[in-house]
Amino acid sequence: MLMSQLYAPTLRETPAEAELASHRFMLRAGLIRRSAAGVYSFLPLGLRVIRKVEAIIREEMSKIGGQEVLMPIVQPAELWHATGRWNDYGDEMFRLVDRHNRQFCLGPTHEELITDLIRSEVRSYRQLPLRLYQIQNKYRDEIRPRFGLIRGREFIMKDMYSFDRDEQGLDESYWACYHAYERIFARCGLDARPVEADSGAIGGDVTHEFMVLADAGEDLVLYCTSCEYAANVERAEAGPVASAKAAGEQLPMEEVATPGTTTIQEITAFLGVEATQCIKTMIYLADGEPVAALVRGDHELNEVKLQRLLGCSQLELADPETIAQVTNAPVGFAGPVGLAVPIVADHAVLEMVNAVTGANKADYHVKNVNVGRDFNADKAADIRAAQPGDPCPTCGAPLTSAWGIEVGQVFKLGTKYSAALKATFLDENGKEQPLIMGCYGIGVGRTAAAVIEQNHDEHGICWPMSIAPYHVIVVPVSVKDEQQWETAQAIYKALQDAQVEVVLDDRDERPGVKFKDADLIGFPIRITVGPKSLSQGNVEVTLRKTGDRTEVPVHQITEYVVNIISKG
RNA sequence: CGGGGCGUAGCGCAGUUUGGCUAGCGCGCCUGCCUUGGGAGCAGGAGGCCGGAGGUUCAAAUCCUCUCGCCCCGACCA
Hints:
27% of the residues lie in helices and 28% in strands. By secondary structure, the chain is of the alpha+beta class. The protein has three domains: 52-236 and 401-452, 2-Layer Sandwich (BirA Bifunctional Protein, domain 2), CATH 3.30.930.10; 254-381, YbaK/aminoacyl-tRNA synthetase-associated domain (YbaK protein); 470-566, 3-Layer(aba) Sandwich (Rossmann fold), CATH 3.40.50. The longest helix has 21 residues, at 167-187. The protein binds one RNA strand through residues 9, 11-17, 19, 34, 36-37, 90-92, 108-109, 111, 138, 140, 142-144, 146, 151, 157, 159, 199-202, 218, 316-317, 406, 409, 411, 439, 441, 443, 475, 477-481, 508-517, 519, 528, 530-532, 540.
């Protein structure tokens, strides 16, 4: 490909919309252009990268017996009604109505479709296991699309669905895919790590997310530095805390005036106590029913854990009116003593002695509150967010935290969809059983973006060889110099003949312009054909990632480059 | 959805507070000259319904009303 013909409109300045490195460089290097919020076109260079990521995915899916299918983006509402997700998905689903007033959605995912697709054909255990996958656009009307391809409303996703006869089969499918994902991300040049995760609306109980650790990540990951434990903060178990019970005698409860102090920070300053002595009481509405959740003052409540514990489909902080009704006080003075709604307490709260908490009375708190004597929790559970420094649930060493970009997730779904859609098979005994399902997604565009987050410098992208849009760019310092131009063309042709993906920068530009564009786009190898080296019969090979420069004789250049590429 | 901000040339922005002649600047683009190892220089040039609609006014990018779009923070999220 000639640079003068390549549709890669590079930008000198960064468009105002972009903040993250991946977003900035994808725009500046001419990989993508925005069409609407969270909706992008892929230009030739961007598409080449996407296709390479997809090719790696296809190879690895194929290795574990995955067969590719293509399913509709437009999906009928009935299937979604059958699983209840037409409602559960809420505003995140793009919905449309046809001329006959029939309802459809743009598929945010394909569990319903795939289950419908196989349920009439798969009849026998002899047809199992079955692993089907698709790579295609999916649609989610995100509340806030951002960061370019990292959180779009239209995005390319690979999803594999597995169908097995029993739990053991599911386990095999799950771990086969888990290991395929490790290979896929490694081949894309990513440092990705699997972490335990929450399964959210999609259902299921066992699940791992593959996280690319990067400051730009949207998920907080807690991991252990001395063992393999790693988990999304939504899921991370909070270990036990030191009990205060032995430390002190229970003192008589005492009401104190605390005018205008509604936050833990204000209370600790006003009363001169530690946050660890305070009980934070939050009133939630679980499917509309009020419930009080207690955590220690220095802890954060984990809503995902609370929701899972309560088994509700909607969980939100109660509005001020409800709080006033439940606690007889304005927001900021809630406490468990004498409260008439169900109380859920974090384990750490049960270990507290002589705690400070709201008095359920405007401008008052109570001191020396003790569990068992002054109030009882209806449920005690792990409902706080684990935090850095907490003991690892596996080995007890302190946990560390980091931000992660979720590039893939594997789920054991079980029978949620097969039961709802009556996808069954006959086992060896002729007995009808629901198929046991798993699903396994990879965000393709997001993976490419994550690669840039981990592989860039101030000048631009540093593509790993495996997914670089082209391997090599040949840059003659001056195309007007006959010897340089002839040599550059000869090298270009020789590399093409050797199946190298190469671009020749044939533009009559000053060298600085060509070098800047080469760095921005991120060709892993640059061959500079200039007067200095050429007088020695050499050209200069520069590696984008390391900046290493090597003089190579013109007649050896093809072999030299092919060798670098084959090493990845 | 709540809070904040922005829509003026392909990109980045000024001008809007205090209405006034032909709407500017840098980059990019086109032509010519010149230059060729890290985004050169000179000269000439093209490109705008100032997001859209309505209103006020002798006069609107500028004031008013409505609307559409985008960005950031939060809530939310396979």
